[in-house]
Amino acid sequence: MSKPAKKKAAAEQPPVVTRDPEASVQDILAVATEEFAINGLSGARVDQIAERTRTSKRMIYYYFKGKEGLYQAVLEKAYMDIRALEEKAKLLDMEPRAAMRKLIELTFDYDETHPLFISLVSVENIHQAKHLTNLTSIKDVNQSVIRTLTSILERGRKEGVFRADLDPVDVHLLISAFCFFRVSNRHTFGAIFERDLSDPKLRKRHKKIIIEAVERLLEVRKG
Amino acid sequence: MSKPAKKKAAAEQPPVVTRDPEASVQDILAVATEEFAINGLSGARVDQIAERTRTSKRMIYYYFKGKEGLYQAVLEKAYMDIRALEEKAKLLDMEPRAAMRKLIELTFDYDETHPLFISLVSVENIHQAKHLTNLTSIKDVNQSVIRTLTSILERGRKEGVFRADLDPVDVHLLISAFCFFRVSNRHTFGAIFERDLSDPKLRKRHKKIIIEAVERLLEVRKG
DNA sequence: CCGGTCATGTACCAACCGGTCCAATTTTTC
DNA sequence: GAAAAATTGGACCGGTTGGTACATGACCGG
Predict the structure, then answer these.
(1) Among B21, B122, B112, B39, which Cα is nearest to B75's?
(2) Theoretical Cys-Cys bridge with B150: which of A81, B41, B102, B168, CB 3.0 to 4.6 Å?
(3) Where along chain A do its domains lie?
């Protein structure tokens, strides 16, 4: 079914150059995300991205100025999407240990289901995050994880179930490192140790391990 | 014993074209390691590598066939160098808990002091490790870590200080992930959370954290 | 309906980049 | 010491790639 578009409905057969700026932008971003994640910044080809789009190379330069502009837009969008991570779960209502477990599971699952995001972050790190520093807005978004974590740790400490001498960012680092690495390094790790890290069986086991590791690390020890 | 000076510079200065194949190869490899680590496979420029070398582009093609051949050689060398990791320490003579702690420290310090290696591994993962699969030799080298770890865990289990239900590769994953991530993602993580992960103070704290996390994870629990 | 801005397609280019050709000169082999 | 092999240099090439000039239709305010 042809989309009737606007009021100018079907005179006979106009070439119907369905104009839709927003759709063009989103289309380009979606394709570019894949290309940059798979091939890296310099490895990705503008022509290839354009070809996979329903529009043309001209549009990429029209909307994003150039390859780097497109890359930066892709990066920003990818980082912004994490916002959806904790929003759907109301961690602050749960008791500390359950909240912590849930937070770990969310992180684990997010990384697992967003390999393109993981790749993009790796790419950006190779470029020493010099494009990321332009994007000040994403700091706030990402630091919300820390606020949540801080709150959970604080409540746990008050209830006497969590120790008090751990920095929330350090805890986040431990969780993030494990979840991220499993995905980012699945190819080399898999090749060397002959393991398929995408195996559901392993996934389940690894999720249990990181949860257990963090839980034990947070435990209060007397003496 | 003056060289048969080139006709152009016959008067003084013998050009002294000191031929040294081995040195040429090593020189190229060293420069290429940096370039590939910093710019990635497609981002690195053969001309740039050649220029930084004391030899010429021609030599790169002579010794390594092409850009990909050079990249593969760089990758192989980088992975082979890990062999030196545990060799110098005789972990098998130490009591299990001390050995485990030492192994973690070695991994932590190795990653910390070899950021180029970390970058290369990240680059290779973006390329889905398709160059690594050609290098079967490195599997053995890297699996020696697992053998060591297996032995430590086994002895610990027999002595009753370590639990028995953990896979050595999974334990290695936990350790490796933390140590690797700290370096591989130092730029994005640092930018977002405004932390300099190379700060010695943080380094010391993080080393303590990963050691403590693993130690606690390995503890035997009754019930 | 009409001028102006927005959106898009086509064709094209100049620079770059991986790779090679030709040849010289050193080192090794016999 | 001559032939053969190994190393090196420098110029050069052809395809690729990011980017642009130009034209043209589509939408919108008045």
Answers:
(1) B122
(2) B168
(3) 21-74, 80-218
As a CATH number, domain B21-76 is 1.10.10.60
Q: In this predicted model, what pLDDT tens digit does every residue of A16-39 receive, in sequence order? A: 446 778 889 999 999 999 999 999
Across the range B46-51, mean pLDDT stands at 97
Q: Which residue is it, tokens 């994640």?
A: A37
Alpha helices in A7-113 (DSSP H): 21-39, 46-52, 57-64, 67-80, 84-87, 96-113
> Does A212 contact B at CB distance below 8 Å?
yes
**CA neighbor of B101 nearest in space, from B68, B61, B149:** B149
CATH number corresponding to B80-218: 1.10.357.10
* Mean pLDDT for the stretch of residues A148-174: 97
Query: Under a CB-based contact definition with an 8 Å cutoff, are residues B60 and B46 in contact?
Result: yes
Residues 75-114 of chain A with CB under 8 A from chain B are none
**pLDDT for residue A112:** 97
Measure B58 CA to nearest chain A CA, in Å.
24
- Confidence at A13, pLDDT banded by 50, 70, 90: very low
d(CA A115, CA A69): 22
Q: Which of B124, B126, B188 sits opposite A129 (nearest CB)?
A: B188
